[in-house]
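Hello,

Our lab assistant flagged a job as stuck in the queue for most of the afternoon. It eventually completed. Since we weren't sure the result was trustworthy after the delay, we are filing this so someone can double-check. Below is the sequence as submitted and the structure that was eventually returned. Let us know if re-running is recommended.
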Amino acid sequence: MNITGSMLVGGSEVRGTEGVLRGWNPTASKVMEPDFGAGGQVEVDRACLLAQEAFDSYRETPLEKRAQFRAIGQGILDRRDKLVDRACAETGLPIKPQPIPRFTPTRRVFRMDGIVI
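-- returned structure --
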């Protein structure tokens, strides 16, 4: 898993131009790489416009095709250990990875529990 410091907007990697955000590892007392380009109104407006434009076509998308979005949720679950490691480093909390329960909200979003999308 590569953390790039960019955002995904409309399927494209976008670097925010409204400043820079940096993770901090309080246990090691050091800045974490990479830095993140902070998004601003331009990025928010673009994301909202793209979502609005996609709404009607998505609404008409057959359930079988929508089910393909489960792969996104599975991709997040497949990276959970690295995501939890990063979160622990940024917070200094000694959280041991919990297999699925920590990712229950993500599972709900992508309906990983066998519920129809």
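-- support follow-up --
The delay was a queue issue, not a problem with the job. The result is valid. Residues 62-117 form one domain. Residues 80 and 99 are 8 Å apart (CA to CA).
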